[in-house]
Structure prediction request, 733 residues.
Amino acid sequence: MTSDRPAGAGDRRRLALITVVTVALVTLPLVGSSYLVSVATLALYLAYVGQAWNVMMGFAGQLSLGHSLYVGLGAYVAAGIFVHFGVGPWAGLWLAVAICSAVGAFIGLLAFRLRISGVQLSLLTVAFAELARIGFDHLDWFGGPGGLFLRVGDRNHIDLLGFRGPPAMYYYAMLALAAGALGVCALLLRRRPGYYWRAIREDEVAAQALGIDTFRWKMLAVVLSSAMTAIAGVFFAFYNNSLFPEQIFGFGRSIEIILGPVIGGLGTLFGPIVGAVALVLLGDGTTEILAKAGVDLPGARQVVHGLVLLLVTIYLPNGLWPPLARALGFQPRRL
Amino acid sequence: MAAASTLAMYAFPRRLGAETAKLKVGVLLPRSGLQALIGQSCQRGADVAPELLRQRLGVDIELMNADTESNVDTARSRAERLIEQGAQVLVGAFDSGHTAAIAQVAEQRGVPHIVNIAAAPQITEQGYKFVFRNFPPAPEIGRNGLVLLGDIFREAKVAPKTAVFMHVNDTFGQAMAKGVAALLPKLSLPFKVVDTIPYDPAAKDLTVEVSRAKATNAELLLLVCRLNDAIVLRREMVKQRWSPMGVVSPGSPGLYEEQFSKGLGKYGDNCISNTVWFNPKNQITHDFAAAFKKRFPKDEFAFHGINASYTFDAVLIAADAFKRARSTDPKALAEAIRQTNIPATDRVSFGGPIKFNAKGQVDGNRSVVIQNLRGKPTVVLPAELAEGKLVFPMPKVS
Prediction:
């Protein structure tokens, strides 16, 4: 984990870099094409959910392989009450967060009271995600396996209340979420929760011996992570406008969530962002390069993802961010 | 008048003038990932289309292929990319979730999207103006498949009194099971379902399930399956020497697929699927099959029947609209697609004329009874399309 804080002589250079990145992100929809905005939105979405997952695994050391549960629940709750009662996403958001936090708390309670951790905990999270997938297949109120569809809004008009509008609106929403998550995580890591989570992650027994209420702080990590992921689910529902249990609760979606932080740097603040951007850029870049070369190679992106994961695991076990941070003059340190 | 002009267009193809450019058709299919097998099968139908449609309609089409990677996010971004690269029509994308994401982009960008295959009814219930589908929604496929059961019994002059219903317990299987349960009582079919047995599509062993089904002494196996489980299940039936009068799928994949026939040899024969299919009697189908064989000599056309045919027809609809609109402007193309009236004899897939209703849906796509005969899926009903004779009851396993 890193403090990710510019310090010393290179301050000005680092500040310039941060300014350039910020300006580029803010002005991207003004200068970029719809496709670029769509890809950037996806990268930010992956960075955000990666950050949410990182709270639980990267900071507190609690492995979840079923985070699609919270994306799906958040999406279905907000979309369901929107479709059936006309309740807008802003109200739905709170309900989604409340339900996902409660479900996260229940899973945490179950796991931590029964002293389930590591691989067993990850299996438990997968089991809950699968349970939700199968369950939602049978819930006609949510459309069952046939899917739940939201009416698509007019692309040319911004309706902030209904969260309907052009792709740029979704991009800025996702940018705000990703930036907000970064801020919250940075703040937490510099406060008591960050130190306690680090202690629990490194040695839970030692942390207990030091008087840390490990149950309480692990629960906080799970609830915070599930609540943050629920917000991504609400975004997903109103961005894609169609939900299918198979797609949203699927194991593939959980893996998609964890790839960013794993490649970028598990437990680091900027790792999930760097990982998500690298994966999206490499994936779409490969597709574009191959298309320009006239090569039609289905699945090239997955091959690239696999290769990157393999190379990072072998040569950069701490992820892309630590060496990148050093190269940029930041001082990454594991929390 | 419109019909006459359409007929004339097909009868006397004429090349479009130099003033109209090539039509750029963006084809979005899941050619990698979980659905790669089907996506690649669909792609074959699209690949054959430009040359054949140039000969038939005198229009030039350029395909712009994109792989959705069996992923809804990718489907969306690739649709955006294709439009940005100049695609004037989008075709795809087999999966309902991917199709919904692409439809949304198409609608927002004002580019026509012709759905080749996707069965979620809601896709054409959204009030979209630029989304068109020439494929029956899931409830219609299920209903057509069950109605054809009666035709089988009438043709064979024998009907089972009992049936056991086995279905995969995944999303698709559950949806089909619900549909079957709701529709069967309304259709006055002669048999009674004595047991319903769900099973895991990933199961490597179905001994228990087949034993339970056999123990019911049901005369008919009504089966909603996928590919691998269908092979495992049929093998187990042979092993347990269970020979009902028939093994019939009311609209699921599996039984008519290449791997099923090749994997089971003679034991794959006589299994029946009531499903959407191509019309083997149409001249365009013969031309399409010949072009398909030429382009993909190692592939048997029949095994790509649904996927390739419906994808080809989607490109055909685009080409037909392009010819009439004499424009590549997406809005003009969308208007021309709304006026589509392709005669039933000029389409590859089986159904009535291709005409879109106010929702952008083609009504009147029909199913046929396919039976595996000598290792090949063969149309046996309706009689006017039959390529082979129905074998029912199926011979006992020896």
Summary: The two ends of chain B are 59 Å apart (CA to CA). Residues 1-19 of chain B have pLDDT under 50 and may be disordered.
